[in-house]
Design a protein that fits this description.
- The chain has about 500 residues and is α/β, with parallel strands linked by helices.
- About 45% of the residues lie in helices and about 15% in strands.
- It has 20 helices and 18 strands.
- It has a seven-stranded mixed sheet, with helices on both faces.
- Strand 14, helix 11 and strand 15 form a beta-alpha-beta unit.
- Helix 17 crosses helix 18.
- The protein is globular.
- Bound molecules: cobalamin (B12) and iron/sulfur cluster.
- Cobalamin binds next to strand 2, helix 1, strand 6, strand 7 and helix 5.
């Protein structure tokens, strides 16, 4: 069986520099498929076409190879199965265009889709004939049983999470999660041009263009119930982690075999098991003293203690991303549903300062139910917080999150909002308390207020991004400031309370 796994092009987000990450999920799947005797390739259309842009759905633009080029390349490879990975809903139209081009060129190929977006919209995709199969949830074991079913039994009942059409019916198997991550073979990073990623652009948030860097995922799932979070349809609520020993085997391979010197730990909740995180960090400081790392996806503040922060500081952490979310206790508890107190936040920030850990804090603004006063309170807390940099994101009802259902049921967003608009700097909800422009203006002004207090930290961050991706960083900055100028004058309270806090 010949299989090509495809990372689809990304949409260009006007206020973000271009990102480029190795498709780690595809590397995990490739590894198992190889062991099962398949001929498997990874085709990263973002890496291959990083400097190319093409338009779709009116005024949206994607970077990566265009659908025709992708289909032509695939037709030359002529695989039995094409696996399309669609991690973000904002890739929806891109997925459709690529799938249509493949159908056109290769009518006999089997198209399988996976990733967060297809997991949420599996039935619709099959009903529309976009794909032959959709795998909901993790793909490693499912793709192996699917290839076996296709080549031998034709019985799809055992394929976890599979959705497919049989006659006029759409059938759906339950999703079973992989309990022992330990048993998965290490991702087949040799199927990718691993070192090209950090050499080409910004990988995620904290970025190092000066040394070889790559991503790693050491655990899956998060018991948290944050209402805006869309990880659970794929990863579930149960925290499942590889043992510290297994993680170190992977790091050792990355360090010695691939020459990696910076790790981006992309776990959803790396520190959930504090003892495991401590064991991993102690071993890093002992065996890989020149390895640096970051956790750009954010770590849970409620899972940090002083010993852990000390270890974080001793192991070359370049920046710790702290997921605060709101500076208003009621919003945190009632609207976001996060078990976090502001005292904990301030304590952790103080400890990070004391131990010399560079920090950035994530905030989310514009949750349904959040009043203007609550938002101002939150942003005043954010502007004062003694972290190095701040990122205020607009609350976006990402498909797969409880917030998506809340927003649709209550009419907080236009039901025709195109999927490409589901990006975290893009406010798309309106409630009786606020409109998107007001929220956006407040978010931007808060970041500027914070930057005025920590100019060197922001300068350093921008320089790092400029080094990795000069043109798209310039474009993103330009768009940020244009939007800042356009944003409406917001509540008088913001500046009044803000200036009294300086
Ligand atoms: C790293 C990351 C990125 C990287 C890119 C990752 C990449 N190339 O692989 C970057 C930084 C570019 C990124 C950007 C964004 N991201 Co992001 N990202 C992640 C993160 C943290 C980890 C992804 C990862 O590596 N997972 C580990 C690997 C092992 O798993 P995986 O890739 O998901 O693959 C598994 C399954 O999905 C499945 N699978 C995947 N593909 C396929 C294909 C087939 C054929 C099959 C069978 C199965 C299958 O099997 C795999 C193995 O189990 C996830 C959170 C998460 N937990 O998933 C968010 C996540 C995917 N991102 C998200 C979002 C929203 C975004 C942004 C839109 C945010 C923004 N800025 O507005 C942007 C979009 C960028 C753009 N230009 O459009 C959301 C998506 C939700 C949604 N419905 O859209 C997630 C779920 C996080 C969240 N906020 O809830 N992101
Ligand atoms: S936002 Fe973070 S802490 Fe909350 S549920 Fe999602 S992964 Fe867990």
């Amino acid at each position: 069986m010949h299989i090509v796994l495809v990372q689809l092009p990304f949409p260009i987000l006007s206020e973000e520099p271009r990102h480029l990450s190795p498709p780690l999920g595809l590397a995990y799947m490739a590894s198992g498929l190889k062991k099962a005797g398949c001929n498997v390739e990874i085709f990263d259309t973002v890496l291959e076409g990083y400097h190319q842009e093409w338009s779709f759905a009116g005024n949206s633009t994607a970077y990566g190879l265009d659908p025709e080029t992708i289909a032509t390349h695939l037709a030359e490879c002529n695989p039995d199965i094409v696996g399309l990975s669609c991690l973000f809903s904002s890739q929806d139209v891109i997925l459709r265009k690529v799938a249509a081009a493949i159908r056109d060129r290769m009518p006999k190929a089997t198209i399988v889709c996976g990733g967060t977006h297809p997991t949420v919209f599996a039935r619709q995709m099959i009903a529309e004939g976009l794909a032959d199969f959709v795998v909901r949830g993790e793909g490693e074991l499912a793709i192996i049983s699917l290839t076996q079913a296709l080549s031998r039994s034709g019985d799809f009942a055992e394929v976890s999470g599979l959705v497919w059409r049989q006659g006029s019916e759409i059938l759906e198997n339950a999703v079973s999660r992989i309990d022992l991550l330990e048993l998965l073979p290490l991702p087949a990073r040799d199927c990718m041009n691993l070192l090209a990623y950090s050499a080409t652009g910004i990988m995620h948030g904290e970025s190092r263009s000066d040394v070889p860097a790559t991503t790693i995922v050491t655990s899956r799932g998060c018991p948290g119930q944050c209402t805006f979070c869309s990880i659970h349809p794929v990863w579930g609520h149960r925290f499942r982690a590889a043992s510290a020993d297994r993680v170190l085997t992977e790091i050792s391979e990355l360090y010695h075999h691939f020459g990696i010197r910076h790790l981006l730990i992309e776990d959803d909740n790396f520190t959930f098991d504090q003892n495991r995180a401590k064991r991993i960090l102690r071993a890093i400081s002992q065996h890989f003293p020149d390895l640096t790392w970051s956790a750009p996806n954010g770590v849970a503040i409620w899972r940090l203690d002083e010993e852990l922060i000390q270890l974080i500081s001793q192991t070359g952490c370049r920046r710790l991303s702290l997921a605060v979310e709101s500076g208003c206790p009621d919003t945190l508890a009632q609207l976001i549903n996060k078990p976090l107190s502001l005292d904990q936040v301030e304590k952790v920030v103080r400890l990070c300062r004391r131990h010399g850990v560079r920090t950035t804090a994530f905030f989310v603004l514009g949750m349904p139910g959040e009043t203007r006063d609550a938002m101002v309170e939150s942003m005043n807390f954010a502007a004062r917080l003694d972290v190095d940099t701040l990122t205020v994101m607009n609350a976006v009802p990402l498909p797969g999150s409880p917030l998506y259902d809340t927003a649709r049921i209550n009419g907080f967003m236009d039901p025709d909002t195109p999927f490409v608009a589901f990006a975290t700097r893009n406010p798309i909800m309106t409630t009786s308390d606020f409109d998107p422009a007001w929220v956006d203006g407040l978010a931007r002004r808060t970041m500027v207020r914070h930057a005025a207090r920590h100019p060197m930290a922001y300068f350093r961050r921008i320089v790092e991004k400029m080094q990795a991706a000069p043109v798209s960083t310039m474009r993103a900055l330009f768009n940020f400031f244009i939007a800042l100028l356009r944003s409406r004058t917001c509540n008088e309270k913001v500046s009044a309370v803000g200036s009294s806090n300086r």
